[in-house]
Amino acid sequence: MNRLPVCRADQLAERPAEQRWLIEGLWAEQAVGIVGGEPKCCKSFLALDLAVAVASGTDCLRRFRPATSGPVLLFSGEDPLDVVRRRLEGIARAAKIAFAGLDVHVITAPSLRLDLAADQQRLVDTVEATRPKLLVLDPFVRLHRIDENVAAEVAPVLGYLRGLQRRFHTAVLLVHHARKGAGHLRAGQALRGSSELHAWGDSNLYLKRQGERLHLTVEHRAAPSGEEMLLELDASGQGLALHPIDPPSDGEHLDLAPSALERIEQVLASSSRALSQRELRDACRMRAHTVGQALTALIDSGRALRTGDGYRLTRTL
């Protein structure tokens, strides 16, 4: 008799609370899921930011702390390898970490088809050799030759990836496109192809562009989802990367918060070097809108100046 293994429910191992996240609040431990959105919504930048965070142990998007760190395995099916390197390098600079030695392993094969048995086995062998904490596959459309609209064709590919996750205890991140013109739909429902894709994910991140701003929606299967977040692609510090931005509140004016000027002056005075606007915002815990207004007022009054490295006072407090 060849029975499946069975365990009584109260004998199942408990998972300590501190091990439930790969990146706290953003991606569950050993989760499979989607980073989705319409074209030109910076999906690849977001996926690479998660990769850098896990590989280095530094905060993802400069805000979300990894609960654990380790190797990352990455396949980029659209971007040339020099572009992948440049993007990873920029994110590393934004995160203020060394790019050399970053534990991100890039698959350099020209193609990877997850609907082909030979390529499935090659990926299994590669995952077994590298033992990544996170596997990033970008994008789904370049990873198969199936009909994405047919659940019977999509399900086996997703089942294969779930099998990888369970066998090697790795998280799997799949970058996938949303349908064009589907901005009015709920994030997961806007994904291109079968609803199997949305249902498959344990952690899903959805990007939507409105003008120059990106809106990030986070969904989890087994944890509360976070509030929608605004992001921007910012090149401050010579590193092109996504950063969270705080929306200005209605009616927010500098004259309603005179302490903003004093706080920014104090932070600048205590620094031995020029500070970027983002560093000031983080140190003062203020909205970018408020910091920008305060810096403009300080410069106009001659109390501060902008240099190539950031902002500094013209005199010491």
Name its key features:
317 residues; alpha/beta; Rossmann fold; Arc Repressor Mutant, subunit A; 2 domains; nine-stranded mixed β-sheet; 8 helices; 31% helix
Distance between the termini: 82 Å
Mean pLDDT over the residues: 88
Radius of gyration: 22 Å
Beta strand %: 15-25%
Shape: elongated
Based on the coordinates given, report the CATH architecture of the largest domain: 3-Layer(aba) Sandwich
Q: Structurally, how many domains make up the residues? A: 2
Biggest sheet overview: 9 strands, mixed
Q: At the first level of CATH, what is the class of the largest domain?
A: Alpha Beta
What's the tally of helices? 8
Poorly predicted spans? 250-258
Roughly what percent helix? Answer: 25-40%
Q: How many strand elements? A: 13
Helix-strand sequence: EEEHEHEHEHEHEEEEHHHEE
Q: Can you tell me the CATH topology of the largest domain?
A: Rossmann fold
